[in-house]
Known about the structure:
Among the domains are: 11-171, ABC transporter transmembrane region fold (Up-down Bundle); 355-594, Rossmann fold. It contains 23 helices and twelve strands. It has helices spanning 6-9, 12-27, 31-63, 71-117, 120-125, 128-147, 150-170, 172-179, 181-219, 221-226, 230-283, 285-288, 292-334, 394-401, 424-430, 445-450, 458-467, 470-474, 494-508, 524-538, 550-554, 573-579, 582-594; strands at residues 355-362, 371-378, 383-387, 409-414, 417-418, 431-434, 443-444, 484-485, 512-516, 542-546, 558-563, 566-571. Strands 6-9-10-3-11-12 form a six-stranded mixed sheet, sandwiched between helices. A four-stranded antiparallel sheet has the order 2-1-4-5, covered by helices on one side. It has a two-stranded antiparallel sheet with strand order 7-8. Bound molecules: adenosine-5'-triphosphate (ATP) and magnesium ion (MG). Residues 124, 364, 370, 390-396, 436 line the site of adenosine-5'-triphosphate.
Amino acid sequence: MGRGDPRKRAPRRGADLRLLRRLWPFVRPQGGLLLASLALLLGTSAAALATTWVLKLAIERHFETDTGAGLGVLLAWFCVLALLEVVGRALGTWTVDVAGQNALLRLRSTLFRHLQALSSAFHDRTPTGRLVGRVTTDIEALQEMFSSGVVTILADLIFLCATVVLLFSLQWKLTLAVLVVVPLLVGLTLWMRVRVRAAYAKMIDSRSRLNAFLHEHIVGMAVVQMFTRERRARTGFDGISGDMRDAQLRSVWWESALSASTEKLSHLTIALILAYGGALLLDAPAATGLTLGALFAFIDYMRKFFVPLNDLSLKVTVLQSAMTAAERIFDLLDRDDFLPEPASPIVPPRTRGAIAFDGVTFGYDPAEPVLRGVSFQVACGERVAIVGATGGGKTTLLKLLTRLYDVQEGSITLDGVDVRELPLSELRSRIGIVPQDVFLFGGDVLHNVRLGHPEISEAEARAAADRLHLDEVVKRFPLGYAEPVRERGANLSSGERQLIAFARVLAVAPAVLALDEATSQVDSQSEHLLQTALHELTSGRTSLIIAHRLSTVRDVDRILVIERGRLIEEGTHEELLREGGAYARLHELQFDENG
Length: 595
Ligand SMILES: Nc1ncnc2c1ncn2[C@@H]1O[C@H](COP(=O)(O)OP(=O)(O)OP(=O)(O)O)[C@@H](O)[C@H]1O
Ligand SMILES: [Mg+2]
């Protein structure tokens, strides 16, 4: 991953500027809020500096001279300023965060939209966990950049400068003396920061290893349990988990060492002020212009000076991690594996549903075609089955028809229009797909039938489901159609999942049906149910059915046999049996199994 990759950290500066420029469009609409927060934070700083000044005046005018008149006014000022400081700081940090969250909201939805637009080829190649990380963890890192980012750093810097000016105005010799400590502090902090950062990078790395391990072993828990791999999985987990603890401890150790030592250094500085300033005060108060109040103010300013100074290095680290995250986010946004939308799209008014494959050649790796010169036609309203050995390229045919991928050679047409000339959404709304692995979303049964289509009413969805006799299945569920579907439909059988997928398609009533039958064997009762449902689904529409079961093939108009990427036979069930070729052999095999 990027964080551990030294190549990615090398060209920092220029890259950071480029990243900031790219972030700008997301931040710009928040410009007003950011300015407001800068003003608030600066106001807060001014109030903080002024409270000390008020105390200085109180000491000089009243405590040193022992007069009480006017002290009340100063105390009132003190209270007002303190209140302003509290309110200003709260509002200032809040507005920065509002601006940040707004900007990230836009970035997040841009990312999600981008993910949706990226082609199947991209998603097939890219691990899911990594993409999830971009939209969650990396965005979070950017959020931190806002809260301790440019605005607060700017406010801190202005505060530091103002404090130095005030210190000089109080007593320049004393200021010069204490400022000697500052380079020491900065040096020490930087040195330790490097260690903190290295430890932090290790921690992030071990965390992502732990996440990957967890994800794999929770999803594959059934396999772990069935193959009694628990002990080995546990050992693996404990190993990674231990690494994570070590990395975390190392990071915490350097963090606490850093904060303890900077705190001590600031105490040392105060001791220095007391010693040197005290000597000046006692020796020649008139010549140096130093009063007890001024000395107090000096110490208080110095204390306030150290807070942002210590924070600065931390904020720089946060900025650096944010830049790494931004880099990864923009890397993803730069991916442009889109399927091209047609330049001048053709939208035929109605789909009749004639399909033609003409010399289609395609390979997931272009050098290794999985389909070679496949040509066939499906007339309007015809039911055609595709059969063949596993891995022959049947599912791939459907992926090309719905343009999850584009053909390398040849063409596919729908009603005479090349699928690449139809707008993607138009093409996909005209073809109803039942995929081989039915994917169900969380929600109830009816929700999965409607798939969030606003134009399908609940009644229509229910009618579609009833026509497929889904109601017979559903009435066994305690909550009927409202029965919750667990993650990926884990609480449903594969037959039930298929029926839901059928109903999904029937509810949108497309002109063309493309069905990829699940390979799994089903019992004869479900077989009957699926068979009737399929008949209902295919009636009156062009259907391309990838069939694994004999019963499916029985009532289609024509059968295509695909073997190793080629169309080798074509005809009706009887014709193909008579020919005694590949289909006849396939039929014999299944008949043996079933008989
Ligand atoms: N996303 C992918 N990336 C790379 N290769 C793939 C991908 N999907 C499938 N393949 C390969 O393409 C070939 C055809 O796969 P396809 O899924 O079309 O077979 P199939 O005929 O549907 O098989 P089955 O009957 O088992 O469903 C196989 O060799 C498979 O390994
Ligand atoms: Mg398949």
